[in-house]
Amino acid sequence: PTTDELLARGSAAVKREFLRPLQALPEAPPTAATADDTRGPNGGKAPQPGKRSDGGVDKHRTGKSRKQQKDERTEFRKSGGELCGSLVKGQCTYGDKCRYSHNIDAYIAAKPPDLPGPCPMFAAGKDSCTFGVMCRYFSKHPAGSGEVTVSPEAMAGLAEKNASGAMDGVETLPAPASILDELNNFPADLKLRLRKGQVR
């Protein structure tokens, strides 16, 4: 083929004198960890039918089985690490079966210090904050703004964290002049039906 034909096909013609042979990559000697990994969890036996060959262990990243990781995530959620977003809005219908924490005081205790400056929602003239107790400016929310009640002990703990100086050096953002209302706010049952493909 001519050069023009090669270029038309998207190939580049390279003179043979400019081609370099590929060098073989050096082989790394097997380490003790990889030698152990080749045996597998059953001591060198073939994996049983229906069983994972690695025993469900994610050794290289965490050293914990996937079940342990899942249990830790569940415990983190339940212990206040992840507060139920529906509870903040007063709409959680799962009750005790909810996968997320309903312990607001534990969430406040685990929450990092608030950011400096006013809450952008209230600064823009809104009468409530979309994020409620999960807002990073929660301690600056006006009293009686219709949010979930927090115990005085939890608020005192949050005030201590805020006064500790952990957010020194963090720049205060200017308050927005206005915040647009959310336009894509679908009801929860419609979101569920969309996820399941029941609505087209």
Topology:
Blueprint: H1 3-9, H2 32-39, E1 57-58, E2 64-65, H3 66-81, H4 85-88, H5 104-110, H6 120-123, H7 152-163, H8 188-195
Antiparallel strand pairs: 1-2
Helix pairs in contact: 5-7
Fill in the keyword field for this structure.
200 residues, two-stranded antiparallel ribbon, 33% helix, elongated
Explained architecture:
The chain is mainly α and 200 residues long. Helix content is 33%, strand content 2%. The chain is built from eight helices and two strands, in the order ααββαααααα. A two-stranded antiparallel sheet has the order 1-2. The protein is elongated.
Structural class: mainly alpha
Round the mean pLDDT to the nearest integer and report it: 77
> How are the strands of the biggest sheet laid out side by side?
1-2
Shape: elongated
Number of helices, counting only DSSP H or I runs of 4 residues or more? 8
| Assembly state (oligomeric) | single chain
Q: Kindly estimate the percentage of residues that lie in beta strands according to DSSP.
A: under 5%
Summarize the helix and strand pattern as letters.
HHEEHHHHHH
Rounded radius of gyration (Å): 29 Å
The parts where pLDDT drops under 50 for at least 5 residues are 34-40
The separation of the N and C termini measures 52 Å
Measured as a percent range, the helix fraction is: 25-40%
Q: Please describe the biggest sheet, giving its number of strands, its sense, and whether it closes into a barrel.
A: 2 strands, antiparallel
The strand count comes to 2
